[in-house]
Design a protein that fits this description.
two-stranded antiparallel ribbon, alpha/beta, globular, single chain
Length: 303
């Protein structure tokens, strides 16, 4: 049907790409003492002092994580492995080290002691972080071009680490960070797992057998459910492993789901009370799903 030109509606404006709308920074969005210069250097703020939606989302996640980490740091500053030289924190999968730099700016700088170690496999990001730390005068930050798996044996790191963090460490890198924390006798671990595929692949391999054996296999019959159920089961096994190794575990949300789909936050505090029931349930779950041959070593409990 032809519509007269005079009655036609004007074309809709093009859809703006997500995260490109810049808005002025509200002072209420900053933590007390937060360095504006650092936010510029991290490209969270534009030269005009504005934030886009993606930067605001990233800043909200880091601040929320700081809310959980700060009391752990305070405890380690008083009762950590080396109270004189301050708490030590190793950040696995550091990326551009947003978390490490903001932790240093908000806590370590004023404390006047303590060290942060950023562990990252991409050499270009490690070099940029080193250069930025030097420009800012953040003297007690070190950046290592290592994998989480290799870092436990690195001579550049102290024998013991107070706090281990892994924010959105992909797939088995979270397990490597847990291994690191167990070897370094970490007093606390703060983990946000991401992109977990290993266990889902195991479930897919034996799917027909499980469907014939138990109706519970319907929980992962469809590919999307396999991925999501595998992710959920992986984190359950991680929590049981931590509890069996002497940690008290809390599982919560990092931020609202509207900000991040990879949103599960695992906080583990060392108490020394190893739960035998957690070890038994971990092995029972591995056996129930036929995972012991392939994943038994990954979820082993240290002596």
């Amino acid at each position: 049907m032809n519509i007269p030109r005079s009655q036609r509606k004007p074309p809709a404006p093009p859809t703006q790409r997500r995260g490109t709308t810049d808005t002025a920074l509200d002072a209420s969005e900053l933590r007390p003492g937060q360095s504006i210069a650092l936010l510029h250097e991290l490209h969270i703020l534009t030269r005009e002092g504005r934030l886009n939606q993606d930067a605001r989302r990233k800043l909200k996640q880091v601040y929320h994580l700081f809310h959980f980490i700060e009391p752990l740091l305070q405890d380690c500053a008083e009762h950590g492995y080396d109270p004189v030289h301050g708490p030590t924190l190793a950040d696995h999968g550091a990326g551009k080290s947003y978390l490490g730099f903001i932790l240093y700016d908000l806590y370590f700088k004023e404390l006047g002691r303590g060290w942060i170690y950023g562990i990252e496999t991409r050499p270009e990001l490690v070099e940029k972080s080193r250069a930025l730390a030097q420009r800012l005068g953040f003297e007690r930050m070190r950046f290592l071009n290592l994998s989480a798996a290799a870092s436990a044996q690195a001579a550049e790191l102290p024998e013991r680490i107070d706090i281990v963090t892994a924010l959105h460490a992909c797939d088995t890198a979270t397990d490597d960070a847990i291994d690191f924390g167990l070897q370094k006798k970490a007093r606390a671990m703060v983990l946000v797992p991401c992109c977990q595929a290993e266990l889902a692949a195991c479930l897919r391999h034996d799917k027909a057998l499980h469907l014939a054996r138990t109706p519970l296999a319907e929980l992962w019959r469809h590919p999307l459910h396999t991925r999501e159920f595998g992710s959920q089961l992986t984190n359950v096994l991680r929590c049981l492993r931590l509890e069996a190794s002497g940690y008290q575990v809390t599982v919560t949300e990092l931020v609202g789901w509207e900000h991040s789909l990879k949103n599960e936050l695992i906080i583990a505090r060392y108490t020394g009370q190893k739960k035998r029931s957690a070890a038994e349930r971990l092995h029972a779950i591995l056996a129930e799903f036929g995972l012991e041959p392939t994943l038994g070593a990954r979820f082993r409990i240290p002596d």
